[in-house]
Amino acid sequence: MKSIYIVAGGPKKYIPSLTRYDADPVIWIGVDRGVIYLQEAGIAPARAFGDFDSITDQERENLSKSSLHIDLFPSEKDQTDTEIALEWAILREPDEILLFGSTGGRLDHFLANTQLLAKYPDAPIKIIDHTNEITVHLPGTYKVVRESSHPYISFLPVSGEVKGITLEGFKYPLSNCHIKLGSTLCISNELILSFGTFSFEQGILMMVRSTDE
């Protein structure tokens, strides 16, 4: 299994302990200040992307002296540093892409990062912070295992309409339901069995698993 984990430069307080996820074979990528977060966690990134406008002059000098492969981009560009790193990861066709440091702080960056998941719905991307896990899904049937760490499960349409949603094993089940963009019908559900399933026939659906904090 090949995994690529990307750490962006969002507020550190929203990032879970990265060492919990550090296992072979994992390729760690730092985006802007995310490189510093990795170094502080004792994890050596394989590559770094960004304009590095959010790090200090001393940190920038230390990076320039290291052997780390750095892809330096100008501050003025048509993509965020996170999207550039994400595209690089997707081209490597990993089995899993985890994205840390992409929530909290500036709301525009957070919303853009969630929309990146919808832009690449075929890619195995998951956004993770200290209280949430976010994934995007195409039509099909999916198994969901109950986790005490993330008991609340919400579903949000990220396309104009999601059709044929069926939830089984949930506290609030659904059968062949259609929801449009902006609907809050499927917010804050819970599994009542050890696992459940969700399925739908058309559209793009976001799943958010949250803690009880």
Note down, in words, how this protein is organized:
By secondary structure, the protein is an alpha/beta fold. The protein folds into two domains: 3-130, Thiamin pyrophosphokinase, catalytic domain (Rossmann fold), CATH 3.40.50.10240; 137-210, Thiamin pyrophosphokinase, catalytic domain (Rossmann fold). The chain contains four helices and 14 strands. The strands form two sheets. The protein has a ten-stranded mixed β-sheet, sandwiched between helices. A four-stranded antiparallel β-sheet has the order 8-13-10-11, with no helix packed on it. A hairpin with a 5-residue loop joins strand 10 and strand 11. The longest helix has 13 residues, at 107-119. It is elongated. The relative contact order is 0.15. The mean pLDDT is 91.
What descriptors fit this protein?
single chain, 19% helix, alpha/beta, Rossmann fold, 2 domains, transferase, 4-stranded antiparallel β-sheet, EC 2.7.6.2, 4 helices, elongated, 10-stranded mixed β-sheet, Thiamine diphosphokinase, 213 residues
